[in-house]
């Protein structure tokens, strides 16, 4: 009798755990379309559809829709513009070692022999063709164009918009650069590992018409941690840019690591001229404050070389000195205060009215014990549920979409929606009063709530995930899906093993 | 089964001891790293936690503390509770339950401590409670030479005859 009771008590504990474990296991292969809980987010006040996106940079032709009700495959959502590419790039991905300083090398992955890979520089309106060749990256690889709102078939997410490119294979991406500004590319196959090991690079898109006030120098600073050591453009320590006093210099900071990286300047005041590629309207001078660059985010800084000495752009452990030969600027501690993007710059009207939203979604992040992919732990939840029971946010082309993103977990989450830029309307109910804050990598601190909006103008199936890539791999990932769009690609599988995160 | 129960209870105590060692080892390393001019932001911490390629060698202590505390110890505590059903230790399930409860509380405090440092302080105090409970659970489950069963929370040798 006692033994029976003991057995019963054991079963009472192990059976629910076993059931939860079994329920959390993912099949060998699955489509993201079958994942999660369909969330139409429909509002009653669905007014007429409005098109148009973040300012002038977003006005591309509509990319096709399922007018006759027949489903459209992600595979067919390619770049519609034909012709000869203006920019052709061939990127060969390989396993190798990355040299980050004199005599300091770490094992990793390279593109054309280096990491970061070559910077892709182009002009707005250019048709770009990138051929990715996988020479030796085990398990296959892809390239995702972080921040560029490319057609869905070019988005580079393994198992959602393409199959991973295996060793010896190649894949060609074609898209028109409709936006200007600072972006980056990185692998979206086993991304938490491949990005860390170096499959990444910068993209800089210059405006078609040169702006009236051009800068004397324009420099990209891609920050990445290799083997525990922080680098700028792949090199540790201090770097220099020779510039004369009075020169105006633009510095494009890209944070490719999985957490926020504060950036600050000593020796002179500076301005934050662009966030995630979108220009800030009337940026004001900043002194004694840092810029919090979210994981995956970009911040373009502009400064004038001071008459006396130099200026120093700093990130944790690395810096860039800008000034005449021999000049220097002090290394300073990170300022305690940071620039609040919610109030920075001057407002301009949006091209759409977020108050007439057709869809309203909630993306509430938490943390709770349970099983994800068969592993016990304390995992990230979305709207109270663990992966794969996450929302599938469903929209139609032309919808104005609002999303309330909140973080009830104990860690910050940099949220990245593919294929679109969102504009921040409010934080904790406090409306945005600065320049329109368009972002693709939004840092959501613990306990904060953001109201964001975007126009659904780019049909496809788009990841909407945390860019702390290990978090995405731990299940902090949902998708925005357009009605009538399907994908033939599957996550998992044996021949091409797609593992996007 | 009593032996299994005893070993698991003892293991929890040893594990808690290790946890204290890991975290102080890691923190001490971090202190030296910072004093020598090293800087680290969240981007650096996250990259280190993910890759294990740390900016300072003692970082391994912080990683072990996290993995051991969130995975290994809860599993041991759960096994302790299950083994209590089969071992004839009077009050064995009650004490296994207390240990498991303190483990759950400990993990919760540890996680919340990253947002509210004061809860991290409670995490330190609760560690001592958990350690004591595990040691006591181990101690009180011993087979007494005189009478095989029957042990209240006061050991027999202390009971006046």
TrEMBL record, chain B:
KW Transmembrane helix (keyword) present: yes
Segments traversing the membrane: 7-25, 59-83, 95-112, 118-139
Protein name according to UniProt: Cytochrome oxidase assembly protein
Origin: domain of life: Bacteria
Keywords (A to Z) from UniProt: Membrane, Transmembrane, Transmembrane helix
């Amino acid at each position: 009798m006692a033994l029976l009771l003991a057995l019963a008590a054991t079963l009472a504990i192990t059976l629910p755990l076993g059931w939860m474990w079994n329920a959390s296991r993912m099949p060998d292969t699955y489509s993201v379309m079958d994942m999660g809980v369909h969330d139409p987010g429909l509002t009653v006040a669905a007014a007429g559809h409005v098109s148009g996106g973040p300012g002038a940079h977003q006005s591309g032709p509509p990319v096709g829709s399922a007018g006759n009700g027949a489903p459209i495959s992600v595979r067919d959502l390619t770049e519609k513009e034909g012709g000869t590419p203006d920019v052709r790039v061939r990127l060969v991905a390989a396993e190798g070692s990355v040299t980050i300083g004199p005599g300091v090398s770490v094992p990793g992955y390279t593109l054309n022999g280096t990491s970061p890979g070559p910077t892709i520089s182009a002009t707005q309106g250019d048709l770009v063709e990138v051929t990715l060749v996988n020479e030796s990256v085990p398990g296959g690889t892809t390239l995702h164009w972080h921040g560029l709102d490319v057609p869905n078939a070019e988005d580079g997410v393994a198992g959602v918009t393409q199959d991973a490119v295996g060793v010896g294979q190649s894949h060609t991406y074609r898209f028109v650069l409709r936006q200007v500004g600072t972006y980056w590319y990185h692998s979206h196959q086993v991304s938490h590992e491949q990005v860390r090991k170096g499959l990444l690079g910068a993209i800089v898109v210059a405006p078609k018409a040169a702006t009236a006030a051009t800068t004397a120098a324009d420099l990209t600073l891609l920050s990445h941690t290799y083997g525990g050591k922080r680098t700028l453009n792949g090199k540790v320590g201090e770097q220099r840019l020779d510039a004369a006093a009075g020169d105006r210099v633009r510095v494009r900071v890209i944070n490719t690591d999985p957490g926020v990286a504060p950036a600050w300047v000593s020796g002179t005041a500076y301005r934050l001229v662009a966030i995630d590629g979108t220009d800030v309207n009337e940026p004001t001078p900043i002194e004694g404050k840092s810029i919090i660059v979210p994981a995956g985010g970009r911040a373009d800084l502009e400064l004038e070389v001071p008459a006396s000495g130099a200026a120093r752009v700093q990130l944790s452990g690395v810096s860039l000195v800008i000034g005449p030969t021999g000049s220097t600027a002090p290394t300073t501690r990170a300022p305690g205060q940071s620039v609040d993007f919610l109030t920075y710059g001057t407002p301009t009207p949006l091209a759409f009215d977020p108050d007439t939203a057709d869809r309203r979604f909630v993306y509430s992040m938490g943390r709770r014990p349970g099983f994800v992919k068969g592993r016990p732990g304390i995992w990230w939840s979305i709207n109270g549920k663990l992966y794969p029971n996450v929302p599938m946010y469903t929209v139609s082309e032309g919808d104005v979409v609002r999303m309330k993103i909140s973080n009830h977990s104990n860690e910050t989450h940099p949220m990245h929606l593919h294929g679109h830029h969102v504009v921040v309307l409010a934080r904790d109910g406090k409306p945005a009063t600065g320049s329109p804050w368009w972002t693709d990598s939004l840092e959501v601190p613990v306990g904060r709530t953001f109201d964001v909006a975007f126009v659904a103008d780019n049909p496809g199936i788009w990841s909407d995930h945390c860019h702390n890539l290990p978090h995405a791999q731990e299940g902090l990932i949902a998708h925005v899906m357009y009605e009538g769009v399907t994908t033939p690609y599957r996550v998992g599988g044996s021949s091409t093993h797609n593992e996007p995160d | 089964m009593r032996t299994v129960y005893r070993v698991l209870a003892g293991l929890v105590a040893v594990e808690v001891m290790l946890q204290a060692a890991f975290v102080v080892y890691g923190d001490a390393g971090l202190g030296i790293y910072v004093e020598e001019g090293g800087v680290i932001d969240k981007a650096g911490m996250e990259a280190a936690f993910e890759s294990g390629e740390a900016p300072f060698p003692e970082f391994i202590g912080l990683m072990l503390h996290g993995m051991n505390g969130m995975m290994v110890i809860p599993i041991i505590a759960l096994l302790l509770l299950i083994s209590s059903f089969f071992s004839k230790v009077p009050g064995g399930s009650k004490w296994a339950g207390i240990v498991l409860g303190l483990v759950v509380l400990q993990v919760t405090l540890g996680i919340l401590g990253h947002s509210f440092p004061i809860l991290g302080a409670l995490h330190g105090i609760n560690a001592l409670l958990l350690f004591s409970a595990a040691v006591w659970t181990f101690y009180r489950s011993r087979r007494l030479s005189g009478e095989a069963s029957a042990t209240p929370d006061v050991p027999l040798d202390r009971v006046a005859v």
